[in-house]
Every structure is written in C-alpha cells, then in structure tokens.
Amino acid sequence: MSVKIVSVAKQLPKYTRPTKEIIPWVKLWMSQQEERFQRKVIKLFENAGVDRRYSIMDAEEVFAKTSFEEKNDIYVREVKKLAEESLKKSLEKAVLKASDIDYIITVSCTGIMIPSVDAYLINSLEMRQDIVRLPVTEMGCAAGISGMIYAKKFLESNPNKRAAVIAVESPTATFQLDDFSMVNIVSAAIFGDGAATVILSSHEDDQGPKILDEAMYHFYDATHMMGFKLVNTGLQMILDKSVPETISNHFPNIIHPFLERNHLTIEEIDHLIFHPGGKKIVQTVEDLFGSLGKNIDDTKEVLRLYGNMSSATVLYVLERFMNGERKEGEKGVMLSFGPGFSAQRILIEW
C-alpha cells in the first residue's frame, strides 16, 4: 500500500501589486527615517527577488495604524475564503467530493483563530462528521511539508483513505508599522499571502507520485533563529541573519543520510522542490544543489511571482511539478525549513 499525491491547487487573495507599486508606500512609511537608511531599504525591496505579491488587504490597510485585533479580524475573515477555494480547486482536480476526505490538516502561523479554519471548512463544505482534524500552528514555513508528513502517517495506517492538507497564510497581517528593524523590513520585502491544498491518498485506484519516505531534522541550540514574538501590536517576526549559513553547514547532514537510507545519492534525484524562504536562502541552496548540475528554477520563479507565503509556498512549487510533464521513475525531494530550527523532507517518485 502506497501513499500518493493526488492533486495540488493554489488560491491567491484578491489584492496584488508589483513591487514597483509598493515602493511609494514604503517611501511614505520610511519618510521620517534617515535618508541613507531609506535608500538602503528601497534597494532591499528592489533586489529581494520578488516582482509581485498578493495580500488579503490592500496597501492602505497594510500601512494603516490599526490594532492587532483589527488586523487579526481581517486574517480570520479572509483565510477562511482562501482555504475553502484552494480545497475546492484541489478536489475538482482530483475529481473528488468534500465528503471523500477522511483527514483534514490545516496549517497557518500568521494569525490566531479558535476554532481553527478546518472547523469552518467542515461546515461550509458539509464534510464528513467523523472526519479527523489536525490544526497545526507553530511550525511556520516548514508546516506545509510537516502537514504532508502527518497525512502520510495517517494514510499508511488507514488503507483506502484520503487526506487534505491546507496551508493558508497572511504574513502581511503580521507587518509591524512602528518597527523599523531590519528583520521587519526584510520580512515586508519578501513575504506575501496565499493558500494551497494538497490531497494525498492511500486508495489503490488514485493516481499520482508516490511518497517513498519522509523525515524531520532538528537543529540543536537554534530556537532563536526563526519564529514570532507575540507583542501588543501582533506577531513580530524573528529571523536571524545566520539562517542561510546554518542551512549551508547542515545541508549534507540533512540530505545525504536521508537519501542513503533509501539507497539513493543526490545525483539520482531529478528535482529539488524547495521552499523559497528568501533570496539569500535560495542562493545558498542553489549553490549547493547547482554544483551537482541541478537547478531550482521553479523555486526561484515562485519567489519572483508570489513572494514567500510561509507554509503554503512549497506547495506552489509542488504544483508546478505536478502540472509539468514528468517521466515515470523521476524522483524529487521536497525540502523546507522552519522554527525550531528544523528541516522537513519528503522523497517522491513519479
């Protein structure tokens, strides 16, 4: 019995602007800052590798002096819509009904809501009343793959079942208007909003690439590197500048033993389906992977088109591979990093 990836579908929020149209808003935001610092910030936005981003709110709301409660209310209202639309699209691709899903995992770290978004989906789509729920909050950018790992574990133990993993994020809801730190600025330059749903199955008749293996890798003494701090104005980003170097130093331990236990080498991997955390992280992994004659062009393209949408982003990269022409036997490694600090990996075969 194997677990297969049946479909992936994304859903973008209604507001979108190219980066060049966001620059005037950034300049207005930075107007009271020292001129040299302003130039540095504008250059950072221009060189972030993000040409366009999408948001659950327009620029006026993003840069408005609103409370945490007001921003979180927008998050709650809009992520329910995004999650539902992405799930419906993924079900349509797989030619399934909402009642065909036995296990629902929702992942989001950019807002707070109880009940979690899966409860609303069960009601709005009239999903099964005995569906198994798992909301995941605190795993950040890694949660898209984490959710798939949890789904695989469930499906391995339950033949002829299906699981939906829905990642829905709004990093723009966490933007801190009065915070002029480089962490807040870098976050604003690279992040965007979005949702995606992946459906996995242990049904014999369902088609799609097989998940051969999965694993998590946890870094010691690195809890300070990435996450959020809950402050009076909302969720304040934590992002250590050492993240790219740490990834580079650990990359051999993350990749090679995982492949070796599957009797594979990195040379035998056709595709790296990598979460684009930001330009520096992408460059770090491209240097490591590119030396083997591989590319991460799809990862770079997702960053360029949408920005980093936290947990949902790697599913956008996966969708590009699912929509493309793949030969039987081609293998890929899904890889993402998140708070903890941790790396999540999935090995798939078409």
Protein traits:
alpha/beta; Peroxisomal Thiolase, Chain A, domain 1; 5-stranded mixed sheet; 4-stranded mixed sheet; globular
Structure description:
The structure is a single chain. With 350 residues, this protein is an alpha/beta fold. It folds into 2 domains: 4-201, Thiolase/Chalcone synthase (Peroxisomal Thiolase, Chain A, domain 1, 3-Layer(aba) Sandwich); 210-349, 3-Layer(aba) Sandwich (Peroxisomal Thiolase, Chain A, domain 1). 39% of the residues lie in helices and 24% in strands. It has 11 helices and 13 strands. Helix 1 (19-29) runs antiparallel to helix 2, helix 2 (35-46) runs parallel beside helix 7 and helix 4 packs across helix 5. It is globular and about 60 Å long.
- Tell me, rounded to a whole number, the average pLDDT: 93
Quick one: overall form? globular
Helix content: 25-40%
CATH superfamily annotation of the largest domain: Thiolase/Chalcone synthase
Report the CATH architecture of the largest domain. Answer: 3-Layer(aba) Sandwich
| Largest sheet: spatial strand order | 1-7-6-4-5
β-strand number: 13
CATH topology of the largest domain: Peroxisomal Thiolase, Chain A, domain 1
Number of helices: 11
Please report the distance between the alpha carbons of the first and last residues. Answer: 16 Å
- Provide the CATH top-level class of the largest domain: Alpha Beta
Helices and strands, with pairings:
Blueprint: E1 4-11, E2 15-18, H1 19-29, H2 35-46, E3 52-55, H3 59-62, H4 68-94, E4 103-107, H5 117-124, E5 132-136, H6 143-156, E6 162-169, H7 182-190, E7 194-201, E8 210-218, E9 226-231, E10 234-239, H8 243-260, E11 271-274, H9 279-290, H10 297-306, H11 313-323, E12 331-338, E13 342-349
Helix pairs in contact: 1-2, 2-7, 4-5, 8-9, 10-11
